[in-house]
Write a structure and sequence with these properties.
Layout (H helix, E strand, L loop, with lengths): L9 E6 L7 H14 L4 E6 L6 H5 L7 H7 L8 E4 L2 E4 L13 H14 L5 E6 L5 H9 L2 E6 L3 H18 L5 E7 L2 H19 L4 E7 L2 H9 L3 H4 L4 H15 L1
Helix pairs in contact: 1-10, 6-7
Length: 252
Amino acid sequence: MNKRAETKPTIICISSGKGGVGKTSFSVNMAAALSQRGKQVLLIDGDLGLANVDVVLGINVRHNLRETIEEGRDPAGILVEVAPGFFVLPASSGVPEMANLSYEEQIFLTNTLEEMIGRFDYVLIDTAAGIGDSVLWFNNWARTNIVVLSPDPTSMTDAYALMKVLNARYDRKEFHLMVNSAQTKKEGESVFNNMSLVLQNFLKITPSQLGIMPLDSHVAKAIRTQKPFFLTFPDSKASKAISQMASALIAM
């Protein structure tokens, strides 16, 4: 892999207020879609205490970010290549203290990551759900913020809470919304429009619509086989939606 020191990668944080809305599946498949277009992509598992990117991809992890933070291990030596141009930086699972890093540990981690990401075109961060400290500082570190939500009212409420906190703490005003598990395009548009109206009324924020992911049985099938649906079922509705969203990200 050639060094890309002369350019900075696009750092994209992918979050959700609520768990179980398909954020990790979206992150994995977006990384696959971008890498298929010739991009060098790094997917960071930002759920530091309850990592699951490795589970979704079915990869065996020997080292993880916990060793970078606790032992100073070079994260470049932790990377796992999933497909050509698609690399994963795994985190630890079942380590609650990793979800509550000190300010010094956060600074150390982001500085360490900054030193090794220059070789990539895109860095995607799949954060934990909610509004924990790691979620907030990963979102602040990123240049682009994607929020995944579903038609579930609790998902919408929690997504709004996340954006409200990011706006209040870091003055974030640009959010790209991805509506997952929409039964119809009309339902997805309705979810986006409702959230957009709330954000405009209460936070004076106008979000952009990254895309709508339709309900698709191929997604669950791919998760069971621990493979990205974008690679396993390239002609599925979900894969076509991811492809469109990848195009939108590149166009940004």
